[in-house]
């Protein structure tokens, strides 16, 4: 069974559902190494995380790295999205800093990016990238979601991800697109059929 490099039960269920295969999470690997994501690209971080856990457990591992790229900021915050304002995971501070940096900026084009890496214990790594194009609002709105969701308005909509809710996000998000791509391109890989451990 494929290991998902996450301890988030909701994420585990969602990804398992989209891929159509059972997955186990990090809660099943109490001695899992703590992998420092210090790569310069989403691909580098996803592969590092997946490869480290695959080598540790001896089983195929699915890892992801994702973030927000803003055109006017030359692609920032990028791989530093979760710690843009310094403290890891401080959504309010990250959103406030993003708005400050975009003050009086007309070009608010941005995209969420998700890279998935399916890594094997022998060092194999298969990657796919999913993106969701949109723009950054001038003020946060909405209560659902997390991260930059209150500021991100996906193309084709006039509301933020935080206003649109989970159902829309699950079909339009960068992660959903990456998972569909993984299923399409590597769905017949032996790791998914259970013929590999």
What share of residues are in beta strands? 15-25%
Tell me the helix content. Answer: 25-40%
What is the rounded Rg? 17 Å
Oligomer: single chain
Largest sheet: 6 strands, mixed
CATH architecture: Alpha-Beta Complex
- Largest beta sheet: strand ordering: 2-1-3-4-5-6
Overall shape: globular
Tell me what the structure shows.
There is one protein chain. By secondary structure, the protein is of the alpha/beta class. The chain has one domain (2-193): Maf protein, CATH 3.90.950. It has 7 helices and 6 strands, in the order βαβαβαβββαααα. A 6-stranded mixed sheet has the order 2-1-3-4-5-6. α5 packs across α6. The longest helix has 16 residues, at 42-57. It is globular, with a radius of gyration of 17 Å. It starts with a strand and ends with a helix. The mean pLDDT is 92.
């Amino acid at each position: 069974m494929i290991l998902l490099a996450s301890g988030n039960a909701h994420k585990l269920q969602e990804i398992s559902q989209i891929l159509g295969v059972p997955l186990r999470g990090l809660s099943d690997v109490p001695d899992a190494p703590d992998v420092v994501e210090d790569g310069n690209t989403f691909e580098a971080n996803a592969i590092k995380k997946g490869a480290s856990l695959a080598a540790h457990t001896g089983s195929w591992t699915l890892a992801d790295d994702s973030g927000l790229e803003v055109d006017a900021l030359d692609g920032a915050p990028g791989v530093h999205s979760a710690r843009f304002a310094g403290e890891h995971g401080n959504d309010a501070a990250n959103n406030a800093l993003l708005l400050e940096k975009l003050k009086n900026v007309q070009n608010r084009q941005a995209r969420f990016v998700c890279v998935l890496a399916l890594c094997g214990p022998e060092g194999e790594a298969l990657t796919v990238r999913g993106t969701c194009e949109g723009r950054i609002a001038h003020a946060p709105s909405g209560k659902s979601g997390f991260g930059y969701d209150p500021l991100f308005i996906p193309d084709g909509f006039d509301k933020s991800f935080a206003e649109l809710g989970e159902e829309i996000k699950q079909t339009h998000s960068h992660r959903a697109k990456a998972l569909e791509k993984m299923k399409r391109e590597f769905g017949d890989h032996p790791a998914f059929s259970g013929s590999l451990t």
